[in-house]
């Protein structure tokens, strides 16, 4: 509104005198001038409400001056003066006043960024009271339009300056010209344009030029900043002027945004098409300049720091307003291609801004991402085929990892500084903010994947790596930091918990399955355990998935043209095999909660075994053939711990299934054992599994097993080498014993009848191996079996010739079996047979012979400690014993030396012939080693880091060895030499056993008793089967326990 005015301005300096002349505060309030503005020009003003403190009297006043750069500068000057008079002052808003004294006109318009828009009608009424002789002359919209529209074509046109001197002399005037025109357009012309005309009449014409002008300002700064210094005041003032001009540009753009958002009905995108695009370009340049300010201004940042801070705040406010306007826009399925393209451009521009502001302001960063995700989902059906999903996912993932690693680093710093209990410390609060951002990005990523998963298949490898990188920073990973419980809990909630939902969204994606299950996947050492835990996590979630998802993971690829994909069970066994270091440390994971028992940490083997068995229990029958193939492959590979894991799962499968299934598996294993023609790791693993499986068979099925593989046939004996007779029922065991002993007797008779030819020794060895298995399979052996074994071993010892043993390997195998069998029945063996055995040992020990023979010899020698030799035979036996022990204790192989120490220690603890001990230790070095072993001398302790490094080196050695076994190739001479070196290398000495204190022993037994009693109590009180009462003998057993407890408590120790 325009006025015709004509009175001079009242001076503020007269207020003090007026106040002192009044007698009351109300009178003082009345004497305060209603208006105080500059006599001419365009300037900022504010509308104030002035109130008497602790009173009701109040009034409105207007204050404005050209000297104020911002509205708050006026308030900061006026407020203290009014408070000194006993008044309370509140700013109700602001704007601008154009005062033309010569024409006697005043125009009130605009608004304040800090205080908002004042009620100009109130301000006008106040101005009328002071300038009452001005004639009011309203001006209609058409006259304003005509007067200001002429500035639009010329806005943005300027002549380039060619030299630095021109910039200093004319730069400020050039920017002022542009800004003056921009202000005229945004302050005078823009408020009178309707929504339907905004784009065509204004935005499309001026906003691209605003962007051009802003970019020229930014380029000007970059061109001149290199010469900036505190001494160069002219350049400093010039650059500050440009920054101030940039702030005014942003202020003008804020007016455009506020006007676009001032309409009651939300604006349509066509009406403001140029607005978001141009503003986002300005915002991007502004935030980038603020981000790079330290590098751009180097050590001279302090000269412009205040303006940069103001520039950032103005840009922050501008973006907030723009996003509010965009949020009010709605597009439906009938939206045009141009509108869809505009929305896509906005989303991508915001993505670009997000990459810039990530380290500038946490709140701004989070709010920008929230809006980006919201708009992507709001217009999902329109934009999903046009969005750069890969860039969005990469940015989200990078931000998640950055915030997560920052949180971990902060948590470590807090722990090192001992601030984990100081929850109000700045460091702890910053950690919480960073962890909150981590949780925000994790949840945002999950949400985005959920809605756009089928557009993200190419990012499957990135998703896999993201999961591994996060999981690797949590226990039980070896590279996980040690953090206090509270900090670890917050990190778990921020990153680890969302990973389950993250994985759940990825399970239906075939490319993700192909990445995770690829046969020759390469992983860094720190990611091998996380990958295994990922596979186990997938296994646990598959049960709740539809059939097509199960088909994707359980069986692997089923057609040659498919991308190679391992079955999930096979991938788990391979992953477990790779975690050698973690198995040896060992790492611990939470165990299963059992009723009546506290949850405890378990080894990696036990954790994986429990998860696999739980999966088998609910596995759909259609996938059992896949499971069986995977179990067979795992048992037949070279890594023994992995084969044992597969054996555990196989035994659970056989026990959980039907008895017929168990019989089927045992028959299958027996056929495989029988098919192994030579000693190998496959035979060893199959034999271990067969031993365990026989225990699970019913007596009737055991009879079927014996009928299928009768021990009376020599070709079946390799099977019975791996069966423990105590696993059989009594009737079956006696039948097997009888058949094995009978076969051994027939074989010996045939050997004897054939003239003890070497060609028949292999058959003898096979039969003898079965006898040995029968002896070891029951403790103690039954009398008939024992007597037959003693008789046959005595007969075989009589045929052992020391001279032939040195030249015939087949006889060395016979000697090994004889030594082992004699160890079992040593108390029943005659002294002449023992003397013959020692004589044979002397012949072979002096020569290079297989390690397994020497190990059997040590086992035999240690068993002689239980035998008392009569005086008449001591002269023959004791020297040989001493000589053999001396040679074996001095062996350079670390493996044999360790077994020799154990065997000698056992012999020394049980023997009555102490002379053998002293005579065996003639060599001082050997004596020292034995004394150190017997006295449990402590070896030097490894620190955690050294042990971990050693285990990592061992891992490569073990892997090379296993690969060599599986390749079945001899390799080059160099490989053979390396293998020999590996075999002879001695590992770190074993740590001596720590003696536990008596108190620890008491505590351990009490805990075990408490745990058992609680489990019994839970069983008695169980509600699952209320009809089943406790057995009748339970009460009597409990009374026995009470009696035992009474006896224990009545014991008194005397010192």
Automatic annotation (TrEMBL):
Pfam families: DUF4487, Ocnus. SUPFAM superfamilies: ARM repeat (SSF48371), PHP14-like (SSF143724). Residues 960-977, 987-1003 have a biased composition (Basic and acidic residues). Residues 960-1003 are annotated as: Disordered. InterPro entries: ARM-type_fold, DUF4487, Janus, Janus_sf. Belongs to the janus family. PANTHER family: CHROMOSOME 1 OPEN READING FRAME 112, FIGNL1-INTERACTING REGULATOR OF RECOMBINATION AND MITOSIS. This is Uncharacterized protein. It comes from Characodon lateralis.
């Amino acid at each position: 509104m325009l006025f015709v005015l004509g009175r001079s301005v009242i001076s503020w300096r007269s207020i003090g005198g007026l106040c002192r002349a009044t007698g009351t505060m109300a009178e003082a309030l009345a004497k305060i001038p209603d208006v105080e503005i500059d006599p001419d020009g365009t300037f900022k003003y504010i509308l104030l409400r002035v109130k008497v403190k602790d009173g009701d009297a109040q009034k409105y006043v207007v204050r404005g001056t050209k000297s104020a750069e911002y509205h708050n500068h006026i308030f900061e000057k006026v407020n203290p003066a009014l408070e000194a008079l006993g008044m309370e002052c509140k700013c109700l808003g602001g704007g601008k006043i154009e005062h033309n004294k010569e024409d006697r006109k005043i125009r009130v318009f605009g608004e304040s960024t800090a205080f908002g828009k004042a009620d100009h009608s109130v301000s006008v009424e106040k101005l009328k009271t002071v300038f009452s002789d001005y004639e009011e002359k309203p001006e209609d919209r058409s006259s304003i339009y005509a007067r200001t529209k002429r500035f639009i074509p010329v806005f943005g046109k300027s002549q380039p300056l060619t030299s630095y001197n021109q910039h200093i002399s004319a730069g400020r005037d050039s920017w002022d010209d542009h800004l003056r025109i921009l202000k005229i357009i945004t302050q005078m012309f823009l408020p009178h344009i309707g929504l339907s005309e905004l784009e065509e009449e204004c935005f499309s014409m001026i906003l691209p030029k605003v962007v051009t002008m802003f970019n020229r300002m930014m380029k000007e700064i970059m061109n001149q900043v290199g010469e900036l210094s505190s001494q160069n005041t002219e350049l400093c003032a010039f650059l500050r002027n440009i920054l101030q001009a940039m702030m005014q540009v942003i202020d003008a753009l804020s007016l455009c945004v506020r006007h676009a958002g001032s309409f009651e009905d939300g604006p349509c995108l066509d009406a403001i098409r140029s607005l978001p695009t141009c503003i986002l370009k300005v915002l991007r340049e502004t935030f980038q300049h603020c981000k790079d300010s330290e590098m751009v201004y180097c050590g001279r940042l302090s000269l412009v720091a205040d303006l940069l801070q103001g520039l950032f705040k103005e840009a922050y406010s501008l973006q907030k307003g723009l996003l509010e306007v965009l949020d009010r826009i709605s597009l439906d399925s009938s939206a045009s291609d141009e509108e869809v393209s505009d929305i896509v451009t906005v989303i991508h521009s915001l993505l670009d801004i997000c990459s810039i502001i990530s380290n500038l302001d946490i709140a701004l960063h989070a709010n920008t991402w929230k809006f980006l995700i919201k708009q992507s989902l709001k217009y999902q059906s329109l934009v999903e085929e046009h969005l750069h999903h890969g860039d969005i996912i990469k940015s989200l993932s990078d931000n998640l990892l950055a915030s997560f690693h920052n949180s971990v680093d902060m948590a470590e710093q807090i722990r090192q500084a001992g601030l984990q209990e100081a929850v109000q410390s700045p460091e702890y609060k910053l950690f919480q903010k960073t962890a909150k951002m981590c949780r925000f990005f994790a949840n945002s990523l999950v949400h985005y994947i959920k809605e756009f998963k089928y557009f993200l298949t190419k990012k499957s490898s990135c998703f896999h790596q993201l999961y591994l990188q996060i999981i690797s920073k949590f226990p039980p990973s070896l590279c996980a930091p040690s953090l206090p419980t509270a900090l670890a809990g917050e990190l778990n909630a921020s990153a680890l918990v969302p990973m389950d939902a993250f994985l759940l969204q990825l399970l239906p994606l075939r490319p993700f399955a192909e990445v995770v299950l690829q046969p020759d996947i390469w992983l860094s050492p720190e990611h091998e355990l996380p990958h295994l835990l990922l596979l186990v996590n997938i296994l646990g979630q598959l049960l709740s998935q539809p059939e097509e998802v199960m088909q994707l993971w359980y069986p692997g690829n089923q057609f040659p043209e498919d991308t190679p994909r391992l079955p999930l069970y096979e991938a788990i066994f391979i992953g477990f095999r790779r975690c050698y270091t973690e198995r040896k440390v060992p790492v611990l994971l939470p165990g299963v909660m059992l009723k009546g028992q506290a949850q405890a940490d378990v080894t990696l083997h036990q954790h994986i075994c429990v998860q696999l068995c739980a999966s088998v229990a609910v596995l759909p029958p259609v996938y059992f053939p896949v499971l069986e193939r995977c179990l067979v492959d795992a048992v037949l590979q070279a890594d023994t711990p992995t084969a044992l894991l597969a054996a555990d799962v196989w035994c659970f499968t056989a026990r959980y299934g039907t008895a017929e299934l168990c019989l089927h598996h045992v028959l299958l294993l027996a056929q495989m054992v029988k098919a192994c023609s030579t000693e190998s790791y496959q035979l060893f693993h199959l034999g271990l599994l067969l031993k365990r499986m026989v225990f699970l068979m019913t007596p009737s099925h055991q009879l079927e097993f014996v009928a299928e593989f009768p021990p009376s046939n020599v070709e079946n004996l390799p099977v019975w080498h791996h069966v423990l007779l105590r696993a059989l029922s009594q009737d079956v065991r006696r039948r097997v014993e009888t058949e094995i002993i009978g076969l051994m007797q027939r074989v010996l008779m045939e050997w004897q009848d054939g003239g003890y030819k070497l060609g028949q020794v292999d058959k003898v060895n096979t039969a003898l191996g079965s006898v040995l298995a029968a002896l070891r399979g029951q403790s103690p052996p039954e009398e008939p079996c024992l007597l037959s074994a003693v008789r046959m071993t005595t007969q075989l010892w009589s045929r052992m010739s020391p001279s032939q043993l040195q030249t015939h390997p087949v006889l060395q195998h016979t000697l090994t079996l004889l030594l082992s069998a004699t160890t079992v029945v040593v108390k029943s063996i005659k002294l002449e047979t023992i003397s013959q055995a020692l004589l044979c040992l002397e012949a072979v020990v002096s020569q290079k012979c297989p390690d397994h023979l020497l190990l059997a010899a040590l086992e035999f020698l240690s068993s002689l400690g239980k035998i008392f030799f009569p005086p008449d035979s001591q002269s023959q036996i004791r020297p040989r014993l001493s000589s053999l022990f001396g040679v074996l204790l001095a062996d350079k192989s670390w493996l044999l030396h360790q077994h020799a120490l154990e065997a000698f220690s056992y012999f020394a603890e049980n023997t009555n012939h102490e002379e053998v001990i002293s005579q065996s230790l003639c060599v001082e070095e050997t004596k020292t080693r034995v004394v150190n072993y017997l006295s449990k001398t402590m070896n030097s302790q490894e620190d955690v880091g050294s042990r971990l490094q050693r285990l990592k080196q061992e891992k490569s050695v073990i892997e090379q060895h296993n690969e060599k076994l599986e390749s079945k190739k001899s390799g080059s001479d160099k490989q053979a030499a390396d293998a020999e070196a590996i075999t002879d290398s001695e590992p770190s000495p074993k740590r001596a056993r720590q003696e536990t204190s008596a108190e620890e022993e008491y505590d351990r037994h009490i805990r075990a008793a408490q745990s058992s009693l609680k489990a019994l109590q839970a069983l008695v009180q169980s509600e699952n089967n209320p009809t089943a009462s406790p057995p009748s003998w339970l009460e009597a057993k409990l009374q026995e326990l009470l009696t035992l407890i009474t006896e224990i408590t009545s014991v008194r120790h005397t010192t």
